[in-house]
Design goal:
The chain has ten helices and no strands. The protein is mainly alpha-helical and 183 residues long. The protein has two domains: 58 residues, no CATH class; 105 residues, no CATH class. Helix 4 packs across helix 5, helix 7 runs antiparallel to helix 8 and helix 7 packs across helix 9. The protein is flat and about 65 Å long. The protein starts with a helix and ends with a helix.
Length: 183
């Protein structure tokens, strides 16, 4: 579909329907889930509806605004390293809980936590030696996003490319080799 067709009046398709998930797709899933949970309580639903009506905005936009404001406060008071930790933990934890509950993508999220553990272990030793490199925290943030983002599946790639061959090469028993090959 051409861009001119997307902006015609009366066209029901949006640009979001035509492209692959973008960087904000996981965050949008969490915001929609948070909005639903706020609406589950009477007080929260009424408060959110009043704010949305007063601001002449959608309820999801109000929740986005509050989350953005909270993010700015965290950066202001605690610095960027806390944001990096939140990126590495919040969405993966949310999706891991969903996968356990729905019995879907469990292997993917277990793989993420294995790779995350190894990366965190490496950063424990590297942080004090390379922290002075400009934009180091931004690089860490980008690495964690790469590891869990649905469009990249970096943790699965890293596991299959580096960790799994190392485990296979160093396994001692036949039973260990069967378990490693099965994954």
């Amino acid at each position: 579909m051409a861009a001119s067709e997307l902006i015609r009046p009366g066209n029901k398709k949006s640009f979001a329907d035509e492209v692959e998930p973008n960087l904000l797709t996981p965050m949008n899933e969490m915001i929609l889930s948070l909005t639903k949970r706020i609406k589950m309580t009477d007080e929260g639903g009424k408060f959110l509806a009043k704010l949305a009506q007063g601001a002449d905005a959608q309820e999801e936009h109000i929740v986005w605004s509050f989350c953005g404001f909270a993010l700015l406060l965290i950066i202001f008071f605690y610095g960027f390293s806390l944001i990096t930790t939140l990126v590495a933990w919040v969405y993966p934890l949310y999706r891991s809980c969903q996968s356990v509950r729905e019995h879907e993508e469990q292997e993917k999220w277990l793989t993420y936590w294995i790779v995350y553990g190894l990366v965190s272990f490496l950063f424990y030793f590297l942080d004090w030696t390379i922290y002075f490199i400009p934009c180091y925290d931004v690089g860490k943030l980008a690495l964690y996003l790469y590891l869990w983002h649905p469009t990249t599946n970096g943790a699965v790639f890293a596991y299959n490319r580096y960790i799994k061959p190392t485990l296979e090469a160093n396994s001692t028993s036949t039973k260990e080799r069967k378990v490693i090959r099965r994954t």
